[in-house]
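Observation: inputs received (chain + iron/sulfur cluster).
Thought: call the complex predictor directly.
Action: predict_structure
Action Input:
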Amino acid sequence: MLHTAMIGIGAARQNGPFAMTHDCVRRLLKQMTEDDPGDTGRAELEAAFEAIWLEHGPWEHGYAEHYRALGSKLLDSLHRQLNGRTSMSSAAIPVHQGGLELLVHAEDSWSGGGERVLRRIRTGSGGMDDMSVGPALLLLAAQEGAGTGRAEVVSLTDDAVHSVDLKPTKLRNRVKTLGEFGEQIRQGSFPATGKAEDCPRCPHWFACGRLPRGDLALGAG
Ligand code: SF4
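Observation:
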């Protein structure tokens, strides 16, 4: 944070038209979890997206038409994955694992047949990273309290639903990793683990971690 303020790169992160289009879909997802317009259909979904697009989308870009078409394609996938629903029931479920108390969020959730289903909806592509603790937490949240539950990750770009299907050994290993994270947090250790896909979108834009030794003289020169 201090790096960012000192070097003055706070504004370095600028979303391109592709990221802005995905951001518009994410805003729509958020809106759908907050309002309940009822099952109003695909056309109303498009109209709600258009309002967001005109406020936040790259509508002035030279290739705006293509990005708008991409937005509609993502909406097609969303509409299919929701089976025509235009509202979602988000969930925030407390999970107690690895010595931590965490609040796990899901964009969509429902219960039926004695089980809870939690869905995380991603606008991007790619399957579930079963080495990450995120999907494991979603599954644990689905099973919290109820005992039985399913977790799914929807990828709108791929128009696919990935079931979080972790075998008990893998689930135990992810809980163990969570416990290690908890220990690091308690010790105040937050090592930066830069990733090619995360750092370009981070407000610190690659500049983070330990500060160099020495005195800081502001306004010098
Ligand atoms: S490692 Fe990358 S994503 Fe993490 S704080 Fe640093 S710049 Fe941001």
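Thought: report the result.
Final Answer: The chain has two domains: 2-81, 91-186. Residues 2-81 form one domain.
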